[in-house]
Amino acid sequence: MSKSIAIDGPAGAGKSTIAKKVSANLGFIYLDTGAMYRAVALKAISSGMDTKSQADLAKLIKDIDISISHENNIQKIFLDGIDVSESIRTPEVSSGASAVAVFREVRLKMVDLQRKIASDRDVVMDGRDIGSYVLPNADLKIFLTAAADERARRRFEELMQKGQKVSFDEVKSDMAARDSNDSSRSFAPLVRTSDAIEVDSTSMTIDEVVDRIMYFYNNYCCSN
């Protein structure tokens, strides 16, 4: 039977970085679910659609083709057959992803794909609603968080390294808006489930967070 680890938490908490390292340690597939919502947002923006229009997105989601491949534990995401792994990482698409993720039609389509991937492969999956909705029976659930200023600093530095011209205040404001969207949406909001272990990464290094999760996996979960 396949095993699964769900890592949820707000934007900038380090979910993707941590999930990649944990999956590599365990030999699991890493699935960045946020990239899938970013792909939907990218298509909406490229098509001139309003990312906050349920009517527009309901039409778009019917014909969208999103697929994922893994090479050496590196995820690549394809939108209508085109590799968009890099182009989905702009601030505009980040904001759009949070907007489109509010709508039930979009989430149902993405969740169906996520569950299919996890049904026959060992996975580490990160997102906003993995432990609460996508994989409610995950073997291990982690809620990864950090102080708001620290999360904004991490995202700002990440974007600067990629050559994107943004200000810290813009990143912090966008992150606050995403936090509000993710936590207040009516369908599958960001929430810490009662069986999730909270890890506050504010003052921790990446390796320390990974070690903490590996400890929980080996001692409380499913190492045998």
UniProtKB/TrEMBL annotation:
InterPro entries: Cytidylate_kin, Cytidylate_kinase_dom, P-loop_NTPase. ATP binds at residues 9-17. GO terms for biological process: nucleobase-containing small molecule interconversion; pyrimidine nucleotide metabolic process. It catalyses: dCMP + ATP = dCDP + ADP; CMP + ATP = CDP + ADP. Residues 5-216 form the Cytidylate kinase domain. Its EC number is 2.7.4.25. GO terms for cellular component: cytosol. Coiled coil: none annotated. Keywords: ATP-binding, Cytoplasm, Kinase, Nucleotide-binding, Transferase. It holds the Pfam family Cytidylate_kin. It is found in: Cytoplasm. It comes from the Bacteria. Its main location: cytoplasm. GO terms for molecular function: ATP binding; CMP kinase activity; dCMP kinase activity. Belongs to the cytidylate kinase family. Type 1 subfamily. This is Cytidylate kinase.
